Fold this sequence. Notes:
- This protein is α+β, with helices and mostly antiparallel strands.
- It has one domain: 3-Layer(aba) Sandwich (GIY-YIG endonuclease), CATH 3.40.1440.
- Helix content is about 45%, strand content about 25%.
- The chain contains four helices and three strands, in the order ββααβαα.
- The protein has helices at about 30-35, 40-45, 60-75, 75-90, and strands at about 10-15, 20-25, 50-60.
- The protein has a three-stranded antiparallel sheet with strand order 2-1-3, with helices on both faces.
- It is globular.
Amino acid sequence: MQKIPKNVYVYILRCSDDSLYTGWTTNLERRLSEHNAGRGGRYTRMHRPVDMVFAEEHPTRSAAMQREAAIKRWKRSRKLALIESHQKNLY
């Protein structure tokens, strides 16, 4: 029996203090709810509420984790440029 692949996403949250948090998940809505309920990452527990400002889909968990690690190494200005370009493409 072949395993059905799940959608995997990398996301960026804007926290209440305007900081940015990057993570990955298979369910964006559930993960955002977890972060806002204090069941997300340790960092976001102290910086609630959070808003999701960026998300992109990846074919595998491995690809998403690699992209997450890359984004986490970026400077804030590069993350903001990614968020802005993503939001422009939505409209």
